[in-house]
Amino acid sequence: MRCKKCKQTACFQIRRHNAAFCEEHFVEHLQNQVVRAIKKFKMFPRSEKILLAVSGGKDSLALWDMLVDIGYSVDGLYIDLGIPDYSDVSGQKTRNFAEARGLVLHEVSLSRAYGVDIGHIARKNKKPPCSVCGVLKRYVMNTVAERHGYFAVATGHNLDDEAAVLMGNVLNWQTEYLQRQSPLLEAKPGMARKVKPLFRLAERETAAYCVLRGIDYIMHECPMSEDATSFTYKEVLNRLESESPGSKDHFLLGFLRTAPQLFPQDPDDGPDLQACTRCGQLTTTGECGFCRQMARAGLDSLALFHSDTPQERDQHN
Ligand code: Q46
Ligand code: ZN
Ligand code: ZN
User: 0.85 exceeded by the pTM?
Assistant: First the structure.
């Protein structure tokens, strides 16, 4: 196997692109895929500051490394969910990454603010942890982006994640979710612009990227994850991909090409919003979902951001 670019010995094959690359050109190829995604969906210009949600896992850290290396201005946001034997490690890996590169990292910590973990809030709400966690993460991302004036919030969802979500949405004909499934969601009142610049890269590619770039990431999945169906969808898609390389690309990218015609968006279409009577975030009801969720757990929603301490690191480069 020879590198498509320089004809040296290749170290990594990407079957769906019918190509192989040496280390240097593999890294370049992945970064080019990210630039292509950003440009195609007009996610953000180089002049704007982006907030990236980082978990300490391979995808978000690889994306942070890529964006900074390409020349984008990106700060991180780490949400400490207080999960025993997990959050400490993921937080430390994220901090180490930011520190070594002189990057700004915002940290919002459940355990520091309240002395509880996400499991406690879930139990008090009688809901699965991931549903409570989703509400919390969206709220924190929107609030930090608004307070600090970020142009967009980026997340590390990759090709495998997005193809699995699409499969679930199609199998269950979740047309509302299909309408919103896009690597770019425009900003709306109370909601930051959301972007997913990694959607063209497969999981194994971001893992390989981390190895090549010496990025130390947490390998374990979050132990609270109970979404077995999404693992099944990923397995099915992996089987398809190995039989017929390019299947995931065809499935997801084909959907993204046709979705605007299938689901035309009306920019004025949306519920009437008012300020949450507790925190001021825009919401459809008197108190927003986040404040209600925290109140059910006996916690003051306003206390969470006392621990949002953006840590300005010394720039090393
Ligand atoms: S962090 Fe939160 Fe995930 Fe853990 S509790 Fe579920 S949603 S699995 S990406
Ligand atoms: Zn090469
Ligand atoms: Zn509120």
Answer: yes
